[in-house]
Design a protein that fits this description.
This is SET and MYND domain-containing protein 4. By secondary structure, the protein is mainly α. It has a domain at 607-715. 51% of the residues lie in helices and 8% in strands. It contains 26 helices and 14 strands. A hairpin with an 8-residue loop joins strand 5 and strand 6. The radius of gyration is 29 Å and the shape is globular. It starts with a helix and ends in a 5-residue tail after the last helix. Bound molecules: S-adenosylmethionine. Residues 222-226, 362-363, 425-426, 480-481, 483-484, 537-539, 541 line the site of S-adenosylmethionine (SAM).
């Protein structure tokens, strides 16, 4: 980062944006109009940065590391017991071998082949099938190829893929095989005939096109376009869904770059960019090639993580430019191309507006950005354009167009800047469940202590799969048409790169459908929201919640105390105006001193029970301390009213520390489990009240209750179980499958 900041500050001194910001195109035109000497220096600095970011790469060491891991995997895999746990452990080591091999293709081929073998043994047939193909692609030794092809045929049989099954068997029949292999081929051929005769014609039910429940209207004023209900919409209904073509993983998370899958049993890394980009399947890798071919060299330099929103802006440009090109190929100058792009973005007449047009028309506030902000985004765009020019063949696609490559360079820089500006006001971040306690380069599905069989967790393990995290920055131009309201009308479920938007309450016909760009009115103070909305989105909120005489009442309902002074003991809500920043949630900020004062007697509150509670949490391993801890939790009711945020925070600490004990094999007393279930249920009620009963926070906390029920450690009833099962709808599909398996394996039986 320092390197980038240094170069940018040197470049900043070379450029002048005196005439202010007209549009992105003019900004880059002015850059190109700089005196030749300055332009050259600017370019040199960019080129130097790109060179400096290159890292030495030693293929031999990669091969050595890969071989070591593969051999370790072999030792584990050859273990005679062939227990599921051992096989998964071998898969993990082979995955390490696949990653470490990078471009050492001989080793990579062997690593893929061995992982395929272990995955097949475990029952991940789709992934095993892919790994066989990967091994062959990487040049798996010819004399051993029949083994891999046999495995492909076997997996194709398990996957009921008749076409592939036939193809691999035909291939095997052409090879000279020994008796053992011949026997296997014969056996598989019988399976093929059986499969063919059994395979039912699957009837594809045409799904009825859903009615459109929403429409977009335009206000000539600052609130611009907005979404309204076209008809009355009841609570809980899916209003609209959207699938994003462009997203980037946050914090370099290893999720599939094509479909955003987080659960992968056989991640396939790009072998050229130092294990930074992975896919969940060959299909995803193939689909993403159109983008990755232009990003790979940047990942190799670890450049993109430095650029924040500009990385997503680059993805928009890489994705949408080929779609725009047919409309622009005839333009003879950069000015003409830019005018055509502006026209394209204004064209909203068609019945279904293509995604790239929706994106082109997103609002931007670059005009209102500070000079420093503008220069920063401009330099990022310039850097990316230079990178594309110097290290990829991106600009080749314009060879046949009427304008020159130099014209296209100006346009591409301007488009990256424009997209970055738009994303600042329209970009979304998606959240997902993620496994607890894993490093970014570890994969949950390969953790042998978690799984019984493919996608079936072990008893008591659900809570280890559920931590809610932000995972992608994502472009959703249709969702972006919703204006902001501090009380949103929708709850958004992120499912990979798709989103589903449910109505949070009943909506009348014509009512505006709001999204909330910040924390909502139950989770933040008006002042905090106003600041963010003004700074980033450049408007002042005047929604119903903000206009109320007491706009913070809903949030402060989670902050009501009883005064600890014996002669007062009144219930009070802290006076927000008198509090330093962050003091309301003093327990979340270690550097903030608690300065809560009773508004009735004006006495400062000391909360002596707070540290005592945390001490008990720390020593939760001890039975007697756990007794005191449950007692201390009950005592919190004396000081913290209803669903006080602090009480929920402390409940979280208590639950987590008890589960740490359960996870290491400690058996709690029956009464402890009962108390634990009581704390979790109370916690869930509080979370439902503040975040919603279908929120990711709720689903995360729910896993503890599921585990206790599965472990038969707490009573439940059919109604509760059905209610919990109903929550599956709000999970992303990859997690829904795992949760459903868990429900069927361990919970459903308890309904009977
Ligand atoms: C994500 S866009 C929403 C769609 C936008 N109205 C449009 O026409 O493209 C966000 C921008 O819309 C405007 N906006 C959103 N909510 C608003 C509100 N409640 N009041 C005024 N302007 C709003 C602001 O300019 C904001 O930066």
């Amino acid at each position: 980062m320092d390197r980038l900041a240094r170069i940018f500050s040197q470049q900043d001194e070379l450029i002048t944006l005196d005439s202010g910001f007209k549009d992105e195109y003019e900004t880059f035109k002015s850059l190109h109009a700089l005196p030749a000497e300055k332009r050259q220096s600017l370019e040199q600095l960019t080129l130097k940065l790109l060179t400096d970011l290159e890292l030495p790469h030693d293929r031999d060491s990669c091969a050595l590391r890969s071989r070591t891991l593969r051999e370790e995997g072999n030792l584990v895999f050859r273990d005679d017991t062939k227990e599921a746990e051992q096989i998964l452990k071998a898969c993990r080591l082979y995955t390490g071998a696949v990653f470490e091999a990078e471009d050492a293709s001989e080793e990579l081929a062997l690593a893929f082949a061995n992982r395929g073998m272990a995955l097949q043994e475990y029952g991940y047939y789709r992934e095993a099938y892919d790994d066989c193909a990967n091994a062959l692609d990487c040049g798996y030794p010819e004399k051993l190829q029949h083994k891999v092809i046999m495995r492909q045929a076997f997996c194709a049989w398990k996957l009921e893929n008749i076409e592939a099954f036939e193809e691999h068997l035909a291939c095997l029949e052409k090879l000279q095989l020994n008796e053992g292999y011949e026997r296997q081929v014969k056996h598989l051929k019988e399976k093929l005939e059986l499969l063919k005769s059994h395979k039912k014609q699957t009837v594809i039910n045409e799904t009825e096109a859903g009615t459109v429940l929403e429409e977009i209207l335009t206000d000539p004023g600052e609130r611009g376009r907005y979404m309204v209900a076209k008809e009355a919409i009841p609570q809980g209904k899916v209003i609209f869904s959207e699938r994003a073509s462009c997203f980037v993983p946050l914090e370099q998370r290893l999720i599939c770059h094509q479909c955003a899958a987080t659960l992968m049993s056989a991640p396939i890394p790009c072998s050229q960019c130092h294990q930074r980009v992975v896919y969940c399947s060959r299909k995803c890798r193939e689909k993403h090639l159109a983008i990755h071919r232009y990003e790979c060299a940047a990942y190799r330099r670890d450049l993109l993580k430095l650029l924040g929103v500009s990385h997503l802006a680059l993805r928009l440009v890489l994705t949408y430019v080929p779609l725009m090109l047919p409309h622009l190929a005839g333009c003879t100058s950069s000015q003409a191309i830019w005018s055509s792009i502006t026209e394209l973005s204004a064209n909203q007449e068609q019945e279904t507006v293509p995604e790239y047009v929706q994106s082109l028309s997103m609002a931007s506030h670059l005009k209102q950005a500070s000079q420093a902000e503008l220069v920063y985004h401009m330099l990022c765009a310039n850097l990316l354009q230079t990178y594309l020019k110097e290290h990829t063949d991106f600009f080749k696609q314009f060879n046949a167009s009427s304008a020159s490559i130099e014209d296209w360079q100006v346009v591409i820089s301007a488009l990256i800047l424009r997209s970055a500006g738009q994303l600042l006001a329209n970009g979304h971040v998606s959240s997902s469940l993620l496994p607890v306690g894993l490093q970014t380069n570890e994969f949950a599905l390969l953790q042998s202590d978690m799984w019984e069989s493919p996608l079936h967790l072990r008893l008591g393990q659900l809570h280890n799969l559920a931590r809610s995290e932000l995972i992608t920055a994502i472009n959703l131009p249709y969702l972006s048409l919703c204006n902001h309201g501090c009380a949103p009308s929708i709850s958004t479920k992120f499912d990979g790169c798709s989103v589903v938007n449910y109505s949070l309450g009943d909506l009348a016909r014509g009512e505006e459908i709001f999204n909330c760009y910040t924390r909502d009115y139950r989770n933040s103070l008006k002042q905090q929201r106003l600041q963010a909305l003004e700074e980033v989105y450049k408007f002042q909120c005047s929604c119903d919640k903000c206009k109320r005489p007491d706009p913070d009442q809903d949030y402060l309902a989670f902050h009501r105390y009883r005064c600890e002074k014996p002669n007062c003991r009144q219930i009070f809500t802290p006076d927000v105006d008198g509090l330093p920043q962050n003091s309301l949630n003093w327990w979340l900020h270690s550097q903030v001193e608690n300065s809560i004062v009773c508004t009735v007697c004006q006495e400062r509150q000391l909360f002596p029970w707070y540290n005592d509670f945390l001490d008990l949490v720390e020593s939760c391993v001890d039975y007697s301390k756990r007794q005191l801890l449950f007692q201390a939790y009950d005592d919190l009711d004396k000081w913290l009213m209803e669903h006080h945020s602090l009480k929920r925070n402390l409940a979280g600490e208590l639950i987590m520390s008890c589960f740490v004990e359960i996870d290491v094999g400690c058996i709690l007393e029956d009464w402890e489990y009962e108390n634990l279930a009581k704390v979790i249920r109370h916690q869930l009620k509080g979370t439902a009240a503040q975040c919603g009963a279908n929120s990711l926070e709720y689903l995360t906390e729910m896993t503890y209750l599921w585990d206790l029920i599965a472990l038969k450690k707490c009573e439940s009833n059919e109604m509760e179980l059905l209610e919990l099962k109903g929550k599956l709808e709000y999970l992303a599909s990859e997690y829904r499958e795992v949760f459903l398996n868990y429900y069927n394996d361990f919970i459903e039986q308890q309904c009977k």
